[in-house]
């Protein structure tokens, strides 16, 4: 069989095709041009693998335009499309099906359909470092699991807190929180959530609420996010002696951001509810924390919790600091 390699090379030269053209191309605002294979493109960085060097990570803000040589799965305004992309003369745009499309609308996806599910989560154990001079033992364990498609996001959180002081149980609490987001567009969403808490002391007390309302995502399609949600909540408070119910409007802020290529994570969850009763001014629940990755799965965490109820008769406040060790999966 004759050797066709020289013939192929000659044909490529005659038709004006170069090896460089058989690659994805990224055009930078400073005039540079990088060719290779685009490996990922998330909310912050595009990662490309040139043939002559290791992977290169480029910030979104530095990209003028880019193009791909073959059809790939791209999330465009949260809709999965199998397209090839051409560069545009407009700064910050590309051509998708010959239409000008902002680069900010694009995320490179390894999903094969809009309905494909992704799962991630973590489990964590922590010690409470609130100052206490008595013989105190405290346990705090929690889990956080998320399942999502491009349009739906389920999140389930659970926590267990157990505390003894001088061999007396001071706290034995379990909590569960479930939220479901329907992502109408890149920014708008509708959230439904449920919360349950039980204090298992001598007289058990249970409280829970159901909530529904619209939300707006200022940024983030994947890991990073800043959500603002307004919900109408219905609260129940129960014990063996009484049952109490009330309604409230609530505002919620959910923030999460990754730094230094994902090594450090900062996050915050804030909710303030305004009950429709004159005896309670507001109820607030604030969590602020950070995680530091020791490996790809194991991390250290610090979390600050403050819960407060302000009423005409009494103000109550509960503050906790936690150091933890967790595992991502």
From TrEMBL:
Q: Where does the UniProt annotation place the signal sequence?
A: 1-23
The alphabetized UniProt keywords are: Signal
The record ties this protein, via Pfam families, to:
DUF481
* The protein's name in its UniProt record: DUF481 domain-containing protein
Which organism is this protein's natural source? Shewanella cutis
């Amino acid at each position: 069989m004759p050797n066709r390699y020289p013939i192929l090379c000659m044909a490529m030269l005659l038709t004006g095709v170069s090896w460089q053209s058989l690659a994805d191309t990224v055009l930078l605002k400073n005039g540079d041009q990088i060719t290779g294979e685009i490996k990922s493109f998330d909310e912050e960085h595009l990662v490309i693998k040139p043939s002559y060097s290791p992977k290169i990570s480029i910030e979104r803000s530095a990209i003028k335009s880019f193009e791909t040589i073959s059809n790939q799965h791209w999330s465009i305004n949260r809709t999965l499309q199998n397209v090839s992309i051409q560069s545009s003369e407009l700064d910050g745009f590309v051509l998708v099906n010959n239409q000008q499309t902002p680069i900010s609308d694009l995320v490179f996806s390894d999903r094969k359909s809009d309905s494909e599910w992704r799962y991630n989560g973590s489990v964590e154990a922590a010690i409470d470092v609130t100052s206490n001079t008595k013989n105190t033992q405290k346990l705090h364990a929690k889990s956080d699991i998320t399942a999502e498609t491009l349009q739906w996001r389920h999140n389930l959180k659970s926590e267990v807190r157990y505390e003894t002081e001088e061999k007396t149980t001071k706290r034995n609490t379990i909590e569960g929180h479930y939220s479901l987001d329907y992502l109408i567009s890149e920014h708008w969403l509708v959230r439904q959530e449920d919360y349950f808490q039980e204090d298992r002391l001598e007289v058990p007390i249970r409280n829970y609420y159901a909530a529904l309302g619209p939300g707006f995502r200022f940024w983030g399609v994947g890991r990073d996010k800043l959500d603002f949600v307004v919900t109408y909540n219905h609260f129940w408070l129960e014990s063996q002696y009484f049952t109490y119910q009330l309604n409230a409007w609530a505002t919620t802020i959910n923030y999460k951001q990754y730094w230094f290529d994902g090594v450090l994570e900062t996050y915050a969850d804030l909710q303030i509810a305004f009950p429709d009763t004159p005896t309670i001014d507001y109820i607030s629940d604030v969590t602020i924390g950070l995680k530091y990755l020791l490996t790809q799965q194991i991390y250290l965490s610090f979390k600050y919790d403050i819960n407060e109820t302000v009423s005409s008769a009494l103000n109550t406040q509960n503050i906790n600091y936690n150091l933890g060790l967790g595992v991502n999966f």
